[in-house]
Amino acid sequence: MNIITIVGTGNMARGIAARALAAGRKVELLNRDAGKAAAVAAELGSNVTSGTVGQAPTGDIVVLAVPFDAAKEIVSAYGDALAGKTIVDITNPVNFETFDSLVVAPGTSAAEEIAALTPGNVVKAFNTTFAGALIAGETEGQILDGFIAGDNAEATAAVASLVSDGGMRPLVVGALKRSRELEGFQFLVMTLQANPTFETFNWNTGLKIVG
Amino acid sequence: MNIITIVGTGNMARGIAARALAAGRKVELLNRDAGKAAAVAAELGSNVTSGTVGQAPTGDIVVLAVPFDAAKEIVSAYGDALAGKTIVDITNPVNFETFDSLVVAPGTSAAEEIAALTPGNVVKAFNTTFAGALIAGETEGQILDGFIAGDNAEATAAVASLVSDGGMRPLVVGALKRSRELEGFQFLVMTLQANPTFETFNWNTGLKIVG
């Protein structure tokens, strides 16, 4: 099956949908508000369908394009309905009150916490790419790096294929626990976007390994 | 004073010396083996002097271009002689036996552990730049990003000035505790260099925020 289910209709959902469509996949958008999902789906074109969160996802890959707390709630509510699915966690569990740490404890990660709540195969991806760059498909003319971590080889390979077909460079960095480093560094990158010292950083940069 | 003291004579010491010389600074190389320091200094040119670890550093900036354990030993041995100095910690405290974690506990960093041992102002820098890129002064034709973290504004500014004058882009990311994220992510980058899947990654890449 060549369908990617994306839960959420925000900027990250749109960005990942753009890469999935560029990869030749069909997209199913699910939102709590079915009307919102239908409207965004219509905007994104004929290869996008819509539905309501809670209905069985059509895609083998289910991208949780929602904040960390919502992602935990959604996988918990789905329960065994996600067994056998590849669940893509894109979250950055930043403490936005202090903007000085993550809300997950040192030595763990949002991805690992989500994985503990679902029988699906959780893969970390898209957490270091901002929405604008995903929609554009590049950063300053350079290919986007897509960092991917996961414990299930088939699931990580499926996400790497999506990333690659979508015009990005997939970098499968290792086991799901490597999400600790991916989330930690993207938190740091996010603090720079919010820091007026960096005039050119406006939630539009791309994290890359050049070489 | 326009002198940078570098402790160590390995590849990273040579790389940082290259950037310091490009920045118009003079370099003092200290090594346990004074003959080794003299030989490398002679190789690097007339703006480089040499000496033995333990002698009072001439530079206001002292770069510890040695592994983590050695860095801790050196600052401990110097004691109060480093008071008022800017101490640059470049270490990546990777557990090289497992290559699966750091040797520092989650929620801390090598930089913070070193800072606890010295009255000097510890600044994290150069831990995400490999020696070859520092010597070349670029990565695939792109400017090198120099991530910098520190608690003392004057000390971080002095290191940022060195980095900038050396032809790199300084990115002062925040307090010294942000070294946790810098060390964590560079550990991940190092695992990729050692991973045969990534054929083009051979301890020669550059970590960049593009934008």
From TrEMBL, chains A, B:
Q: Which residues form the Pyrroline-5-carboxylate reductase catalytic N-terminal domain?
A: 4-93
* Naturally occurring in which organism (per UniProt): Arthrobacter psychrolactophilus
Name this polypeptide is given: NADP oxidoreductase
- Identify the keywords attached in UniProt to this record, alphabetized: Oxidoreductase
Q: Which InterPro entries match?
A: NAD(P)-bd_dom_sf, P5C_Rdtase_cat_N, STEAP_metalloreductase
Question: What domain of life is recorded for the organism?
Answer: Bacteria
Q: Which SUPFAM superfamilies match?
A: NAD(P)-binding Rossmann-fold domains
User: What is a single molecular function from GO for this protein?
Assistant: oxidoreductase activity
Alphabetized Pfam families for the sequence: F420_oxidored
